[in-house]
Amino acid sequence: MIKDFKISEHFTFFELTNSKDHPELLSANREHFSVQPFIDRLTVACEYLLETMRDDLNIPIYVLSGGRCPELNTAVGGVPNSQHLFGNLNDGAFDIHTPAMSITELGNYIADQSSLCWHQLRIYVKQNFIHIGMPRGKEDGQVTVIK
After folding, report:
1. Which residue, among 59, 132, 62, has the nearest Cα to 101 in the 3D structure?
2. Alpha-carbon span 70 to 68, nearest angstrom
3. Minimal CA–CA distance to 2: which of 23, 33, 25, 24?
4. Complete DSSP assignment for the chain
5. Is the pLDDT of residue 138 over 90?
6. Residue range 119-135, pLDDT digits in tens
7. What percent of the chain has pLDDT over 70?
8. What is the C-alpha to C-alpha distance for residues 92 and 76, in angstroms, rounded to an integer?
9. pLDDT tens digits, 10-36
10. Kindly report the CA angle at 110 between 55 and 89, in degrees rounded to 5?
């Protein structure tokens, strides 16, 4: 059985590999991400995206969905090339929120003031979360607001 551990200063392995929608796949998901190259990709994405946001804003950031093994990605209806799979070098995506500001405020901050580069920034207003993915180079900087 895999034990929880810190990935970065503010985020743990369990937090970045959690699934509230499919707890039956949680063990397989964590097993998948506990080995290379996935653990390193999870760490790089966490440090770059999550820790940068948290440091810039000085507020807590909570992860709703991070790394997904292929079975979990399919179960949640994720696309086959989802960055949540961490399948390629520099892949990685997180669905996040914070109680410290509205999702719209957080999205606007990331889009307009953050030093981060991202591939996709999707602001899910009604569902109260943001999806942010690691930069891929081609077509980076996409911002979509879903009301």
Report:
1. 59
2. 6
3. 33
4. -PPP-BSSSS-BHHHHT--SS-GGGHHHHHHHHTSTTHHHHHHHHIIIIIIHHHHHHTS--EEEE----HHHHHHTT--TT-GGG--STT--EEEEE-TTS-HHHHHHHHHHT-----SEEEEETTTTEEEEE---STT--EEEEE-
5. no
6. 999 999 999 999 999 99
7. 100
8. 16
9. 999 999 999 989 999 999 999 999 999
10. 80
Amino acid at 71: E
**Which of 72, 61, 17, 76 has its CA nearest to residue 42?**
17
pLDDT for position 1: 82
Identity of residue 88: N
What pLDDT does 80 receive?
96
**What is the C-alpha separation between 94 and 139, in angstroms, rounded?**
18
